[in-house]
TrEMBL record:
GO terms for biological process: regulation of apoptotic process. InterPro entries: AN32, Leu-rich_rpt, LRR_dom_sf, U2A'_phosphoprotein32A_C. Residues 128-146 form the U2A'/phosphoprotein 32 family A C-terminal domain. This is Acidic leucine-rich nuclear phosphoprotein 32 family member. Keywords: Leucine-rich repeat, Nucleus, Repeat. Residues 149-249 are annotated as: Disordered. One of its GO terms (cellular component) is nucleus. Belongs to the ANP32 family. One of its GO terms (molecular function) is histone binding. It is found in: Nucleus. Multifunctional protein that is involved in the regulation of many processes. Residues 166-230 have a biased composition (Acidic residues). Its main location: nucleus.
């Protein structure tokens, strides 16, 4: 899907001025340039274009409110001076996985006075001697480089992540987990219902056992009665035989 069509789908019947976050990851940019994005996206605060084949950001429109820009896994090798002009209020910039080889390429970023976090993972520039020290010297406004500050302390999630709303999603997941642990009222009702069903099943089994025992007792009693009647019959027969013998005498 090309970038223009993807932008159209992402709008979802909204106007560009209503959009604060725009994710265009894995779509296709023609000739390695940004397409379909205009100055009408005046409220845009977060833009993500991961793996779209960009070689240039020259076509980026004026986005005064843009705070976080995700450009990772593209083929950008220069032309970053346009960012200070088009996105003057950027605080987070992710250029990981691009073709940035030397410090001169990122030097124009010094004009981004609000830039707080820069990511250059998997770029050749990271292999230079004293890379971190030189970047912090070149861009004194930076607080975090590749997720760590000058003292090698990891950035909090809110600063390290490039995505607006990603932290909120994490919070939502935590809340869902806590909610699951506390168990929703519906779940409790279901559990109580299951317990009641188990109790009823137990009572039915007990009743079956009792009825079974009663049947066994009845069978035993019937057997005893039959034995007694049989003994009486044998006794009568003996008495009759004895009387018959006496008569014969």
């Amino acid at each position: 899907m090309d970038m223009k069509k993807r932008i159209h789908l992402e709008l979802r019947n909204r106007t560009p001025s209503d959009v604060k976050e725009l994710v265009l990851d894995n779509c296709r940019s023609n000739e390695g340039k940004i397409e379909g994005l205009t100055d009408e996206f005046e409220e845009l605060e977060f833009l993500s274009t991961i793996n779209v084949g960009l070689t240039s950001v020259a076509n980026l429109p004026k986005l005064n409110k843009l705070k976080k820009l995700e450009l990772s896994d593209n083929r950008i090798s220069g032309g970053l001076e346009v960012l200070a002009e088009k996105c003057p209020n950027l605080t987070h910039l992710n250029l990981s996985g691009n073709k940035i080889k030397d410090l001169s390429t990122i030097e124009p970023l010094k004009k981004l006075e609000s830039l707080k976090s820069l990511d250059l993972f998997n770029c050749e520039v990271t292999n230079l001697n004293d890379y971190r020290e030189n970047v912090f010297n070149l861009l004194p406004q930076l607080t975090y480089l590749d997720g760590y500050d000058k003292e090698d302390k990891e950035a909090p999630d809110s600063d390290a992540e490039a995505y607006v709303g990603l932290d909120d999603d994490d919070d939502d997941e935590d809340e869902e987990e806590e909610y699951d642990e506390d168990a929703a009222p519906g779940d409790e009702d279901e559990e109580e219902g299951e317990d009641d069903d188990e109790e009823e099943e137990g009572e039915e089994e007990e009743e079956e056992d009792i009825s079974g025992e009663e049947e066994e007792e009845e069978e035993l009693n019937d057997g005893e009665v039959e034995d007694c009647e049989e003994e009486r019959g044998q006794k009568r027969k003996r008495e009759q035989d004895e009387e018959g013998e006496e008569d014969d005498d």
